[in-house]
Amino acid sequence: MERDDPTSQQETTNSIPGPNHTPVHIGPYRILEKLGEGGMGVVYLAEQTEPVRRRVALKVIKLGMDTKQVVVRFESERQALALMDHPAIAKVFDAGTTPEGRPYFAMEYVKGVPITEYCDTRRLGTRERLQLFQRVCEGVQHAHQKAVLHRDLKPSNILVADVDGKPQPRIIDFGVAKATTQKLTEQTMYTAVGQLIGTPEYMSPEQADLTVEDIDTRTDVYSLGVILYQLLSGALPFDSKQLRQAGFEGIIRLLREKDPPRPSTKVSSLGEQTTQIAQRRRTGPRRLAGALKGDLDWIVMRSLEKDRNRRYGSPQELAQDIQRHLNNEPVLAGPPSATYRARKFAKRNRVAVGFATTVVFAVAAGFILLTVQNAKITAARDEAESVVTTLEEMLASVDPTKSGRDVTVKEMLDETAKTLGENFKNQPLTESRLRYTVGKTYFALGEFDAAEGHLLRAVEIRREELGPENIATLMAMGQLYWTYRNQNRFKDAEQLAQEALEINRRVVGEENIRTLRCMMKLGDSYQAQFRWAEAESLLRETLDGCRRALGKEHPLTIGTMLKLGQCLSISSSPDEALTMLREAVELSSRAFGEKGSQTLESMGALATVYTIQRRYEEAEELRREIIEIRRRDLGDEHTWVLSQIDGLARTYRLHGRYAEAESLYRAVAEIRVRVQGKESSRTLAAMNNLGMIYMDRGRYKEAEPILRETLKLMRRVNGNEHGYTLRAMSNLGETCQNLGQLSEAETLRRECLETRRRVLGEDHRETLSAMFHLGDLLLTQGRYDEAELLNRKGLQINQRVHGEAPHGDDYGVPLQTNDFRYNLACSMALQGRRREALSLLQEALDNGYTAQGFSGWKPNLTYLQGDPEFEAIVEELKRRNEEDESAMVE
């Protein structure tokens, strides 16, 4: 029987052995110290100087153990490791024999600790432990694919070290490995009768049974199951002392006949140890036991099945079932009942259902608070428990194939919300807590208008009862900010963020996370209002503060990178934005998983930058991936799914794939009208998008009624000065112009320009856009002198503010200084001022002008046609446009 502490590379505090115990050199290796000792070998830390200089772990057969059978086993380990090429398996560099004929081999020195010790000292949570364990499974799977079993998997043979800041497991000690389909040595390796190969605590029943000869991959699966049991619960399935006192026959009988307790049961039975075990997993005893119940219990117990035919067939299958658990999908080890699958469905849709659960618990807490005041504690607890039980039954009864998730949750919310004010009118803090929770849940469902009322009331109550500086008040203000933001009420959002920032700077200081979060929100609100310079400056300051105070992988740091990347992609530096957003995606994936909400948000921002840079295929691929994940988690009609579909439609539109864009825009608009109503801010944006795509396709008669209704509703819902109202106004003005309704078009164009001047200032790019479009209309009306004055002013401002480089809007379409030059040239040409017009056109050409669809402006330059200089300019524009279109296709 092998010793409990087998040969290991684990670092020890042993001093370097003296010359009487250890040779100074073995082959080309200089011995530094002894690292460990097992049943048949000794491992030394040694230094190799040629042909490369490195430290290695040198394993040498123990003196007195060099019997024929032991040598065969040792040579088997050497051959087994030589077959491996996987980052989770220690590499073999060299092999040889000592002058005394004792075999040795040099392998990668892993400066790590056993996996259980690594996880405990770093207090890894359950999810992190599972992800690390999956990588171990991948290494064992690789060994199995090379037809080699380990047969002695245990924590001391799985060392973990940090590599580039990430935990990297290394499986060592294949000293008892057994080839499954090939001969490892020229000699026969066998297990003598009465000799166990392996470590009893981690040994499968069939491995302990010496009458069983056909040991296969499932014995390693059993050992992995024991390690997983220990990683999750902090204990072994069978007590080591009891197991070893049982003797040879007792071990076999125990492993074959007695079922170990489930991990959740085990961790609950450990008494005072449970608290310490839970703390090492960054949780409490009850939460730990609760987290292990269900999926993880089933996965572990399936790995430990005594009948190997009922275990996972391979480490890969075990790792895949763990991934199902992490994805909140039904695990193969679990019972396939309708209740179980419904609960898994609820977990996958935790964005909505999870908040709904919180609502019910909050309601239950409210009942407890009320009745405690009346000394009815027992009855209150019973009532709260009844509410929770009702929620569990409701979720279990949901059939995902037949019932709409949002409908169920929304109905429950609506019923809860109806009576909040009445039931808790004498309990203001309880009412504020429940309104805050209900508001957050409506927000998660995309019901922003419903969320606003509850969150606004929560803020009002907390300001009055707790004061404006209380953290509960500030939390409610933060959630109300995001609600305003998603309602496109940017001024209200800015005001709230500014107020919260001032409070936090005064109360907690400049680089506290609360202050930094408010700075990010304020920068975000500037960006939403196209105030790019202010947004960029504040977001850069916020990002620097986050990196110093929180580190680069903190959620707020990543979130700020996301906002700054979005800002840079449109305002000043798309290339820098691309680099930043790629880093944000990488950091988010590492911190929150590839399917985490912040990861998906980062991917969406990256897709936007790809669109702006005309990398349409990459943008489309990202959008489709996000949509697929969001649909699976949230359903087809959730607002966050529809927002991503909008992004995909925008990519199609800018790529010139108008039919596909129209189909998506129409589908989104129809869903939003049906689910959220016509007056929802998101619905109105969708209607505006649909009108725009009709305009792009020259179908102005179809666009007109949609844009008229959209503008009418936007005026009522958002007000006349809202950015989206003004965009709808501009779109309707363009439609009227193309339909020949020039008087109405002028009224709309002038209102748009005057409002933007008043709200945003004359230098703002939205104001300049309105100026450009009004100048174009004046040309159409034959009012050339007025058009000249307006376009000359626009040219001067654009040159001063933006220079010659184009500046894109949030649709990725640039307005260039050259566009004003062109319009100004048209106004001069139409007044017969040929030389001035040609000079401006040539100046535009020299500054890189490419007029997409230039044939549309030729009528304005009829006076110049036939002029050699003009025709040369036209030919050059044709050439440039053809090159540009070819690049878009590529």
Automatic annotation (TrEMBL):
Membrane-spanning intervals of the chain: 351-372
Q: Where is this region: Disordered?
A: 1-23, 259-283
PROSITE patterns cross-referenced by the UniProt entry: PROTEIN_KINASE_ATP, PROTEIN_KINASE_DOM, PROTEIN_KINASE_ST, TPR
Query: Which positions fall inside the Protein kinase domain?
Result: 29-332
Q: Which UniProt keywords apply?
A: ATP-binding, Membrane, Nucleotide-binding, TPR repeat, Transmembrane, Transmembrane helix
The record's TPR repeats, renumbered to this chain, cover 432-465, 684-717
| Record field: compositional bias (Polar residues) | 7-17, 265-278
- Residues that bind ATP: 59
InterPro entries, per database record: Kinase-like_dom_sf, NLR-like, Prot_kinase_dom, Protein_kinase_ATP_BS, Ser/Thr_kinase_AS, TPR-like_helical_dom_sf, TPR_rpt
NCBIfam families cross-referenced by the UniProt entry: TPR_END_plus
**What protein is this chain from?**
Tetratricopeptide repeat protein
To which species is this protein native? Eiseniibacteriota bacterium
